Amino acid sequence: MKRLLILALLCLAFLVPVTLTSCFPESAVRQKKIDRERRHNENQARKSYEMDLKRHHKSQSKQTRSMMKDSRRKSKKVTPGRK
User: Fold this and answer.
1) Distance (Å, rounded) from C-alpha 77 to C-alpha 66?
2) What is the C-alpha separation between 21 and 77, in angstroms, rounded?
3) DSSP labels for the chain?
4) What pTM did the predictor assign?
5) 22: pLDDT strictly greater than 70
6) What's the rounded Cα separation, in Å, for the pair 6 and 14?
7) Does pLDDT of 83 surpass 60?
8) How many CB atoms lie within 10 A of CB 25?
9) Chain-centre distance of CA 67, in angstroms?
10) What are phi and psi for residue 7, nearest 5 degrees?
């Protein structure tokens, strides 16, 4: 009876780590996929923003564009820590 109990406990002791490690790679793969999708979405958002900004600048008059350019240059000079 004691041998059977000890044998059952040893089997459980060996099976628990095996089942835990078999689930780990799936979660790591899932996390990598989520990170990849997040980077992709961030890149798409950045590209979309830059295209919208470019479109906005092109729709302005020549005088307004030059004023916008001057204000960008001035803000870079005045703002500390930004280049």
Assistant:
1) 17
2) 55
3) -HHHHHHHHHHHHHHHHHHHHHHHHHHHHHHHHHHHHHHHHHHHHHHHHHHHHHHHHHHS-HHHHHHHHHHHHHHHHHSTT--
4) 0.51
5) no
6) 12
7) no
8) 9
9) 36
10) -60, -40
